[in-house]
Amino acid sequence: MDYGHSERPAGATPLPTAIKILIAGGFGVGKTTMVGAVSETRPLRTEEVLTESGVGIDDLSGVESKSTTTVAMDFGRITISDDLVLYLFGTPGQDRFWFVWDELALGAIGAVVLADTRRLADCFPSIDYFEGRGTPFVVAVNCFEGAKQYRLDEVQAALNLDPGVPVLLCDARRRESSKEVLITLLEHAMKTRDARRTLD
Amino acid sequence: MTVQGESAEHQWVDDHAGPVVRPYAVTRGRARPVTGTFDLISLVTATRADVSAEVGLGPEHLAIVGLCQRVQSVAEIAAHLDLPVGAIRVLLGDLVARNLVQVREPRTSAGLPDNSVFEAVINGLRAL
C-alpha cells in the first residue's frame, strides 16, 4: 500500500523492551502514591470495561442485561534507557477483580506489597496471590504518621512470611524511599530466579 | 450488528451499558481486534510521521498515530485517549493491519529475565 508518505527513520530502529512491576496492597495504602513518587510523569489511569461474559463481535443481543464493570488501574513509566522501559502498575484494590490481576501479573518481574500496620490484614490477599503464583515480592510497610511503629521481624511474623521475603519500611511519598523498595525487589527477584535455577 | 433503530439505542443508555456506549461506538461495535493481542505494556510506535484521513480510519486511529510518534505502551495510549484498553486494542489491530504502527510484545513467558536486564533497571533507578 502506498500512502504517499516516506517511512519514518525511527520506524526502522528496534523498539525498546518493556517490563513491569506491580504495586499491590489494600485500599488507600499508598499504591498510586508510590507509583507517582518514582514515575517520570504523574500517574496515568487506564480502564478496562468488563462484562460478565465479554461482548461478542456479532452478538449484541442481551448486552443490556449483562452487568458491566469498570476496573481502573493507575500506572507510571520510568524510561531506563533507549531500549528498556519500566512500568509500575497499581493493582485494582478489590478482590473480585482477580482476573485483572492475572493479566497484570503475566510477565511481571515482581511485586511490591504495600502494608499499613493499622490494617495489616488488608495485604493478606496480595501476599497469598503472589505466593501462589510464584511472583517474587517484597513487603514494604508504608509508615503513616500516627501509626505505631513495629519492628520488621514483628511484621514478618505477623504476616507469616517465608524468611527469604524482604520486609522493609518505606515512605511511599518519597522518591528515594520508593526507589529503595524497587531496588530491594529487583535484587530479591534475581536471587529467587537463581535459587530456582539451582533447583532445576 | 443487530442493534436496530432508536428503541435499541435506548437500551444501551442505561446504568449498566453506560460505560460501554462510547468506546464501542469508536470501534464500530467491534470488541476484538482484527489482529494481535496487545498486552498492556506492548510498545507501539508509528511507522509514519502522519497519516491523513482515509476510509476506515477514524479520528481515534489518527490520534494514536500522532501519539505514537514517541514509543507508547498500550496502557499509555488508553490513558491519553481516555478510552478503555479493550477499545484501544481494536483500534491498534486496524492500524497494524494497515502497517501504520509497529508493535513489540513484552516477554510474557515463564521465568525471569537475565541479570543484564535486572542490573540495567537497578542502575537506572539509582540514577533517577
Automatic annotation (TrEMBL), chain A:
Gene3D superfamilies with a match to the protein in the record: P-loop containing nucleotide triphosphate hydrolases (3.40.50.300)
Keyword Nucleotide-binding: yes
Record keyword Nucleotide-binding present: yes
Molecular function in Gene Ontology: GTP binding; hydrolase activity
UniProt-listed InterPro entries: Gliding_Motility_GTPase, Gpn, P-loop_NTPase
Key words of the record: GTP-binding, Hydrolase, Nucleotide-binding
Pfam families cross-referenced by the UniProt entry: ATP_bind_1 (PF03029)
CDD domains named among the record's database cross-references: Ras_like_GTPase
Similarity comment: Belongs to the GPN-loop GTPase family.
Protein name from the UniProt record: ATP/GTP-binding protein
Provenance organism: Micromonospora globbae
Automatic annotation (TrEMBL), chain B:
InterPro entries: DUF742
Taxonomy, superkingdom: Bacteria
Protein name from the UniProt record: DUF742 domain-containing protein
Organism of origin: Micromonospora globbae
Biological classification of the source: Bacteria, Bacillati, Actinomycetota, Actinomycetes, Micromonosporales
